[in-house]
Amino acid sequence: MKQIKKLIGSGFYTGYFPFASGTIGSLLALLIYLIPGFEKAEIIIPIIIISFVIGVFLGNYFEIEYGKDPKQFTLDEFVGTWISLLFLPKSIIIITVTFIIWRILDITKPYPANISEKLNGGLGIMLDDVISGMYSLLIMHIFNFLFF
């Protein structure tokens, strides 16, 4: 059971990369997103919800194992990546710009993501990425509306 928790919580072991584990996790989430049909609301939204719930639980486990908001836990990056891409056209330029904006916002943690990150356990780990993902989503929908 411990190995399954590590497999899922670390985003298929992307959390164990020696550098930029969050970006590596986000890249894998993006590759999964590119699977044909994955972007459909009836598929991606339940996966986001289930991943969030599992992430809160596994985030608690990872914090006990590795400390506060551990780099080994990257399931939050998967959820944030997928949220940032919701309902957007599946084009290379949109996906690329979304990914860059998502990573910037996830790293800089604008308000209230910076406050939610301070919550203990899995909820704090997951919530800041959900908020940053929602900011990315909003920015990209405005960008898409204005320029495409």
Q: Can you characterise this structure?
A:
With 148 residues, the protein is an all-alpha fold. It has 7 helices and no strands. The protein has helices spanning 2-9, 21-33, 41-66, 75-84, 92-108, 113-116, 121-147. The radius of gyration is 14 Å and the shape is globular.
Summarize the structure.
By secondary structure, the chain is mainly alpha-helical. The chain has helices at residues 2-9, 21-33, 41-66, 75-84, 92-108, 113-116, 121-147.
Which features characterize this protein?
single chain; 148 residues; 7 helices
The rough form would be described as globular
The chain-level mean pLDDT equals 95
Helix-strand pattern, N to C? Answer: HHHHHHH
Rounded to an integer in angstroms, the radius of gyration calculated over CA atoms is 14 Å
Strand fraction band? Answer: under 5%
What structural class do the secondary elements suggest? mainly alpha
Total beta strands: 0
Uncertain runs are none
Largest sheet: none
Proportion in helices: over 70%
Terminal CA distance: 47 Å
**Count of helical stretches:** 7
Any chance you could write out the topology, listing elements then pairs?
Layout: H1 2-9, H2 21-33, H3 41-66, H4 75-84, H5 92-108, H6 113-116, H7 121-147
Helix pairs in contact: 1-3, 2-4, 3-4, 3-7, 4-5, 4-7, 5-7
